User: Fold SIS domain-containing protein from Ataeniobius toweri.
Amino acid sequence: MATVAKTEGIKAFSATHDWESADYEPTLPVSEMSNPLTRNIDRAPASSIVKMLQACDAQMFQEKSGAAYERLLSDQVAKSLMEVAKRVQLILKNPQDSLIVLSGCGTSGRLAFFITSGFNRELRRLNHSAVCSYIIAGGDRALFSSQEATEDDPISGALSLKKVSEGKKRVLFIGISCGLSAPFVAGQLDFCLQHPDVYTPVLVGFNPTHQARNEPIPGCTFTFHSVVTKMRELAKMQKAFLINPVLGPEAISGSSRMKGGSATKILLEVVFSAAHAANFSRTPITYNGILQHMRSYGKVLDITYSQTEGIAALMEAAGRSLQCGRGLCYLSWGFLGLLGLIDASECKPTFGADYKDIQGFVGGGCKELGSKEGDLNLMGAESGIAHIDFLHNVLPCLTDKDTVLLLYSHSDDVDEVAKLARRVREKTSNMHAVYHQTDGDTAAQQGEINKLCSSTLNFIWPQATPASMGLQHMWELSTKLVLNAVSTGAHILKGKVYQNYMIDLQVTNSKLYCRATCLLQRLSGHPKSLCEEALLKAIYQVDKLTEDIMTCNLTTHTHTARKVKKVVPLALVCLLTGYSIKEAQSHLEQKPIVREAVEACLREQTLFSGSL
Ligand code: F6P
Assistant:
């Protein structure tokens, strides 16, 4: 009875409390909290899901006087952005022996690549040398497929930074970790702190510093928290910089690819655009300029979510495909396509998705995107991301049950879009498009493409955009929001979310292991030790933990977990019912919709407790 009472208690509590109050989920950092706005997102129809996501995204731009935390538009955040922009400008002015390095894990690393590529491209266009480099935990393979384990490796982080900046005399290092949690990034920041003559560290993340992860990192004398504490001291003398506004909990708890990813893109684009304008058009870097630029991103949210119905229709189409075991394909051109790839790759750890559930393809593939390690197609089927891979591997088997989404803009080769659209239309009528154009510009073939598609989200952007902000950046953020909404919503409709928790997450690194344990505690009401035990039993597929298993380290656990499906649901069913692993597995097979399986167990548990 205690179990149910606890779970019910948490539900009632969460629904009524503001996440900013001190007693709201007090043991969790903001980035891991559950958002009261999305408590019932798993039961909502597509149109309500979109509205909830809109409300969550709007929290990023909330300006509250006397708020407990720094926010995106806070004074201190704008000031830090100005200072970092000035450092970038210095490097632009005197690029010799200097480098800017952006680094992160998962989506944060992918965005590091995205922003680096865009900035360097712009510099090359102006005949300026490229000054920016990126690092992603797990190397380029992780750009388009989920490689979560390296996130736990601080040594690999430090070594990759050392390697990329070999011989440089001045390095501005920007480490991104939304949760202030990744050991990989902590290792790099610590490396910077050891070599202050060369490195200036900047940390981008979305928790207050006291909530930085403080768990010991095996083999290290530092934690993320201790590194941040040192940086805070150095920040007073501008020898380090912290950019850590709080965005409010994610719509799906812990899913930092959403608001965390969007804010990362916004903050870094503001920094780089300001530095670029200062260096090439002598526009001074000012506090007001920075704030104005940030605010203009808020308008992107308004324009994007003004098409709620269209986004909901796309979500429903994608949800239907996933529900019947078919897939969603993003077909794109240029850099909008990279956002499709980023969106698709994160579905695996977040929803336990198969890589075929949501796939992204972009024109010429890796070569076009300019990754460091070149042609990732050689690394196996999962990395085939060019249109040619789509034509060979996916098109022949496409049916009306699959959803295809074209992502393109007025500045892409619209002839090519029309050509591919015709080929796709021969196989499926379930084709849709997201198209960005500026007011007054129309592409001749757009009418034909529209006719081929069952629906088109047509975003028309005003010609006169704020001077500091490129149209391209607007289109990109808008596309990211739409894709995040569609892929998240589709998985919700498939039953991969319970309340607003990712119930079927992969347990492939220490952060995800802790998240899974917390979730089990929360949903079962059992103590941590029992939940961890159940998690291990599910990982190793045993009913009794052996001495051997108990002595294995966390890395072995998370490595083993890669091979098992539905680890968390399995552990939860065992915890709630006392079933053996086999029994729990067959229970989950009978109810393949994870949310329904979990709910059935919770119901049974309630009845059982009631009858006692
Ligand atoms: O390990 C999984 C993950 O949570 C990804 O979903 C995320 O993109 C990545 O870690 C990085 O997280 P952070 O930016 O908080 O370090």
